[in-house]
Recover the amino acids of this structure.
């Protein structure tokens, strides 16, 4: 009899499991839900990358012909376009999670894992692109002459390569901080909510 009483008291103290519908409500919440936060951040990056090439043209409006014939400018436009497409694809993944209220736990885990992988690749891709631009800035003056690059190449190689090294180190820490603020924290929150779901 005492054993039965002990079992009953244990069942009463067992933590109450949150229903899947409640967790889905937290995931999809318009103000503070991780999905809406991720969508907002992907959209901001898309808008920024669309605006930046236009701003470059406006700031070089007096030399717009020189800007439009620059390999550096078109490389930057290509980079912005790739970032827009990459973020649009990530945005679609998140939108798919938002649109399917009845998604099972395994599907959500798969989508979150896919987003995590894509964000890791994004970090690597940004470092590769930065190295590409460094090489381009060093090689381009042999093919095209721009006042800005000519002035840069007039500096000693020690200053130039020291600046590149400083830029790579700064980019490493800033991109990690930015990714954590804008994406990693929301993904971690989403993962913890998905873990609480019942299969």
């Amino acid at each position: 009899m005492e054993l039965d009483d002990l079992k009953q008291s244990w069942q009463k103290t067992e933590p109450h499991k949150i229903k899947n519908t409640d967790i889905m409500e937290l995931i999809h919440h318009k103000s503070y839900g991780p999905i809406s936060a991720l969508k907002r951040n992907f959209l901001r990056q898309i808008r920024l990358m669309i605006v930046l090439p236009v701003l470059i043209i406006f700031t070089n409006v007096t030399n717009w012909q020189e800007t439009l014939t620059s390999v550096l400018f078109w490389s930057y436009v290509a980079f912005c376009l790739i970032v827009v497409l990459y973020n649009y694809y990530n945005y679609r993944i998140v939108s798919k999670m938002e649109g399917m209220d009845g998604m099972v736990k395994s599907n959500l885990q798969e989508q979150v894992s896919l987003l995590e992988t894509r964000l890791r690749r994004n970090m690597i891709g940004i470092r590769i692109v930065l190295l590409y631009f460094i090489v381009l800035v060093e090689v381009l003056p042999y093919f095209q002459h721009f006042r800005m690059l000519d002035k840069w190449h007039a500096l000693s190689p020690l200053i130039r390569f020291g600046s590149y090294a400083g830029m790579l180190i700064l980019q490493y820490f800033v991109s990690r901080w930015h990714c954590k603020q804008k994406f990693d924290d929301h993904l971690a929150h989403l993962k913890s909510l998905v873990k609480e779901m019942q299969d």
Remarks:
- The chain has one domain: 19-196.
